């Protein structure tokens, strides 16, 4: 398997000019490239609840979260994430309220 997180050797996969070793491994755009090339791509429809499992990775346009094994009354899973220093809980019922989901992945 090619390590697509080696930005220096695969710069053409990433939309950047300057590599910052101290932060690039945490950037959403770079993580999208990593998951696209190293994980199983899954359905984006949050209403197809059987295809969303705890531990899955959900990528929003500018944010990333982990799917929880806890679900709301409709069966849609919560998302574990950190969006703000004022956020009360890291596990939130936000998945069906977001319209910016661009990726859903599972590591195997």
What does this molecule look like?
- The protein is of the alpha+beta class and 108 residues long.
- The chain has one helix at residues 28-38, and strands at 40-41, 57-60, 63-71, 77-80, 91-92, 101-106.
- The chain has a six-stranded antiparallel β-sheet with strand order 1-6-2-3-4-5, covered by helices on one side.
- A hairpin with a 5-residue loop joins strand 3 and strand 4.
- The two termini are 13 Å apart.
Whole-number count of domains: 2
What is the arithmetic mean of pLDDT? 86
Write the element-wise H/E pattern from the N-terminal end onward: HEEEEEE
Helix content: 10-25%
Counted beta strands: 6
**Spatial order of strands in the largest sheet:** 1-6-2-3-4-5
Low-confidence stretches: none
Overall shape: globular
**Which percent range describes the beta-strand content?**
25-35%
Structural class: alpha+beta
User: What would you report as the Rg, rounded to the nearest angstrom?
Assistant: 15 Å
**Count of alpha/pi helices:** 1
Largest sheet: 6 strands, antiparallel
Q: Separation of termini?
A: 13 Å
Oligomer: single chain
